[in-house]
Design brief:
- By secondary structure, the protein is mainly alpha-helical.
- It folds into 2 domains: about 260 residues; about 160 residues, Hypothetical protein af1432 (Orthogonal Bundle), CATH 1.10.3210.
- It contains 17 helices and 4 strands.
- Strands 1-2 form a two-stranded antiparallel sheet.
- Helix 5 packs antiparallel against helix 7, helix 11 packs across helix 15 and helix 13 runs antiparallel to helix 14.
- The relative contact order is 0.08.
- The N terminus is likely disordered.
């Protein structure tokens, strides 16, 4: 169990990227570009920039690391369409620049004993190939239309960098062409789709869950980052011809700012979780609940939510609500009276405490409705009951029956049988089924 299959997504992605890289290197080595002194100078400069950018990493909301080395590679792909004299720049050359840069970054990671990101680099490699190919197709189409219509319709596809008395032209007097707007949009779309699809495939393979929510989460977590990367790459392509190597430090500044912004976001999320985790221990330290109850409920709730394909933003809120689901018990003067207290009043009190913070209204709602039944006799399922509240209800009941030191002496299957008996009214059948699958994956059932 847990053994990686021979044809896993990592093998397929890595093998495909290596095969494409071998072809690209052969085509590049046998081309005239490899023997052109100025071209090799530009090639080496961009490869070093890719290596430096690969060392910049951001942490996404799903805690996955994302390196920024693809940004200068996209800029290099666009650079060939900015300067017409270098329009012979090919996709193999673009891929070779990225591969050499990633190779240098890998050597640096090994020397620094940092974890390698080879599969992630392979995904970037495939996305770069697709993005560069579709941009070149749009740029060629724009150039053809501009030549046939004397620049009249080319404006639809290209930005207007040079104006004359007759309107926009496709080539400026300084020898620079225009960036294709539709080409940039197509490049962004292709890069996002390829990377999102491959990462979602990897995640679903490791943990079989509904693919559509995973795909949406991937787009939500990386869409803005990809837009930023392409924007910076476009600026590099425009700035490099007039500025030369001086464009590189200017390019690294926005990448560093992007990394800093994502680090701040990750730090804020970590601070929230640490604060909520500390608050969740208050009922335990006061003797209102069993030690570790809230943490166990939260861990199980996150696994069930992932099993059900809940999006990452809602999973975070479910985790917060699970940690704080017993916070209302602190309103009871004597811990000995906790068993006799009204569950509804405790839930309302706990929700009120969370609402007083001015944050997490959905967390407060989950805490408020955590004890409500899935449906009442003679009625349909409660439409106002959120998935988070239903998950917390099941997880709390499961932990109460299986916690360390429980006196009932029930096995995991006995507990599951009890919970299954409550599926008609108390518990959501989908959540109970997800709990069973989670316990099977854990090896506990």
């Amino acid at each position: 169990m847990g053994r990686k299959p021979l044809l896993s997504s990592d093998y397929l992605i890595g093998g495909g990227a290596l095969a494409a890289l071998a072809v690209a290197l052969v085509l590049f080595a046998t081309s005239d570009i490899a023997h052109h002194g100025h071209e090799l100078h530009v090639f080496g400069a961009f490869a070093l920039l890719v290596a430096a950018s690969e060392m910049f990493e951001v942490t996404l909301p799903n805690d996955r690391q994302f390196s920024l080395g693809i940004a200068p590679a996209l800029g290099f792909a666009l650079y060939g369409s900015i300067v017409p004299v270098y329009m012979h720049k090919s996709i193999p050359e673009v891929l070779s620049v990225f591969a050499v840069g990633v190779g240098l970054a890998t050597l640096m990671r090994v020397s620094m004993k940092k974890p390698l990101q080879l599969i992630d680099a392979a995904i970037h490699f495939v996305a770069l190939a697709g993005g560069a190919a579709v941009y070149q197709a749009f740029a060629s189409l724009a150039a053809t239309m501009g030549a046939n219509n004397h620049g009249g319709r080319a404006f639809i596809f290209n930005t207007c960098l040079h104006k004359t008395a007759h309107g926009c032209t496709s080539t400026t007097g300084d020898g620079f062409t225009d960036l294709s707007i539709f080409g940039l949009l197509a490049m962004l779309l292709v890069v996002v789709i390829i990377e999102t699809t491959l990462n979602a495939y990897r995640q679903v393979e490791r943990n079989p869950v509904p693919v559509l929510p995973i795909f949406k989460d991937q787009i939500r977590s990386t869409g803005a980052l990809h837009l930023s990367i392409l924007s910076v790459g476009s600026l590099l392509a425009i700035a490099y011809p007039p500025l030369g190597p001086w464009a590189f430090p200017l390019f690294l500044a926005p990448l560093a700012a992007t990394q800093f912004a994502f680090r701040q976001f990750a730090s804020i999320r970590k601070t929230y979780l640490q604060t909520i985790g500390a608050l969740s221990r208050v009922p335990e330290m006061a003797g209102y609940t069993q030690p570790g109850h809230s943490k166990r409920v939260a861990h199980l709730a996150v696994e069930i939510a992932q099993e059900l394909g809940v999006n990452q933003a809602e999973i975070d809120e479910i985790e917060y609500a699970a940690l704080l689901h017993d916070i209302g018990r602190v309103s009871i003067p004597d811990p000995q009276d906790a068993a006799d207290a009204s569950k509804l009043e405790l839930a309302l009190t706990g929700a009120g405490i969370v609402r007083e913070t001015g944050h997490f209204p959905r967390v407060a709602e989950m805490i408020e409705h955590q004890y409500e039944p899935y449906r009442r006799r003679g009625e349909d399922a409660n439409p106002g009951l959120s998935m988070g509240a239903k998950i917390i209800k099941v997880c709390s009941a499961f932990d109460d029956l299986t916690r360390p030191g429980a006196t009932l002496g029930l096995s995991t299957w006995d507990v599951l049988e009890r919970l299954h008996l409550g599926m008609a009214y108390e518990f959501d059948p989908a959540v109970i089924q997800a709990l069973t699958r989670v316990l099977e994956k854990r090896g506990e059932a």
